[in-house]
Amino acid sequence: MNTTKIGENKNKAILVDRDGVLVEDVGYHHKLEDFKLIPNAVEGLKLLSKDFKLIIITNQSGIGRGYYTLEDFNKFNNHLIKELKKQNIKIQKTYYCPHKPEDNCECRKPKTKFLQEAAEEFGIDLKKSFVIGDRKSDFEMGKNVGCKTIHVLTGYGINAKNEVSPDYFAKNLLDAAKWILKKDSKYQK
Ligand SMILES: [Mg+2]
Ligand SMILES: [Zn+2]
Asked: In total, how many domains does the chain have?
């Protein structure tokens, strides 16, 4: 089945934020004792994993700020990947930005560098893909490349100054998954 040629972007992906979407966001968390999956996140990913490649894109300025190390981040993130694998959920890759906002790097969301990279690396058609997140920077990034965007309310909540509106507000990842599958089935026709 995996015969996609490079440049022939046929795959669909879910580009998902990590903190506040998959794991509870307690603020610059990096210790395993703070690891807690958000209710329904696993169910949501399971539904989506049949038709979509699953990719995490996360801003981790805590590394650049010196709150935790890259090693801490890797330990925490590998734990997440392992827990999901136990549930038969495959995450293709985690793209993370370790920079502080003031570094003005090329990869921090809402910049689209990681989306472009993922598209190339996994042969993804971004126009048929979805970005799920809990902050404005997530939707901004997705909108900029033509992805559909979903705001899950399990994390940061609704920012009053949210000028960028997502295509859908979801209670949680399972709710988001159901909406995506409905939307996606319309594209097929
Ligand atoms: Mg988040
Ligand atoms: Zn960066």
From this structure: 1
